[in-house]
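Notes from the 1:1 (GR / supervisor)

We went over the backlog. Supervisor wanted to see one worked example end to end before approving the batch request, so GR pasted a single chain during the call. The sequence is below; no edits were made to it. Supervisor asked that the structure be written out right there so they could see what the output format looks like.
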Amino acid sequence: MGLEQITQQAKRANVYLFGNRVVLVGITFLGYGALTFSSLPAHELNSVTAGLSFCAFCAGAGIVGNARFGCSTIAIYRRSMAHISRYGRLDDRFAKAVINGSENEPLTGYCQQQGLYLAARDTGMLATFREAQKQHSNVSIPFI
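Structure output shown during the call:
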């Protein structure tokens, strides 16, 4: 396995594991809830800590489930990378179609647009993404 293949796999892993910040927050809550609840001794299962752990677990499960485990981010990332590879650039029409094809509300539609952002970032075409985002996106969650 060459250095080029390792680099590509590392980029892919970054998109899958950390690309969608909403899913990452959900997984954090899910893990915190599961770990703290499972580490409680039996006599503390009726404590406030147990209740908070259960709430964190449920919130994490809800966030991850609602974000569909980041599958939308990955699908749009792949589609955007294929588009950029095929045409050599990210054009405004494609970006607008992705943005308008998402739910495009202040707290929803982030996942698909994050996939487009990651593809633009990885190919050095963030300026096109930012321009399309300014013109068409209503999402208020920051793209990082």
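Supervisor's comment: The chain has two domains: 3-67, 69-136.
Batch request approved.
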